[in-house]
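name: query_chain
kind: protein
chains: 1
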Amino acid sequence: MTAMTPGSNIPLPVTRVTVDVAAPVRLDVSGLLLTADGKVRSDDDFIFYNQPSGPGVTYRSGGGSTPDSITVDTTAVPPGIEKIVVTASPDAAGQTFQGIEPTATIRNAEDGSVLASFTPPRLAAETALVIIEVYLRNGAWKARAVGQGYSNGLAGIATDFGVTVEEPAAPAPAPQAPVTPPPPPAPAAPLAAP
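structure:
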């Protein structure tokens, strides 16, 4: 097994790899299929818990007891996709990676054997990370340790790679109670004759 450092890469000796991402807290893990310009073709290239499969890439939830993972089948990745980035963010809103550094383990998807692992060093205010990328170079698939952090969560990563992130809708103004005009004044009582 290779212990990777930021920027290091390894050739992938198999066509199907799984990247498990573990941390002492629950994480949201996702994969993005990127073209040569570093962007997704559409939101369909964003693979995560609400959209667990795409061409050549699948997401598996660990259910909180085992790591979430992204599996890449390089033989099923469509032409034009040159990179799959594996990202993670803490599940708890606003939590940073300080003190809870995740470890990505790259495995042979067929037999589970470990090919490499990577733990990004020196994390602090990051709320999301690009941990590993599986990429095509000169016709061969490789994996690179990245560890690039974002302080604006998974939405920041998604936006950087061209995914449309819908902002939460502003609450609708409360309906106003209909205004009813005050009743007309009561007619004055007739004056009594003297």
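note: The two ends are 117 Å apart (CA to CA).
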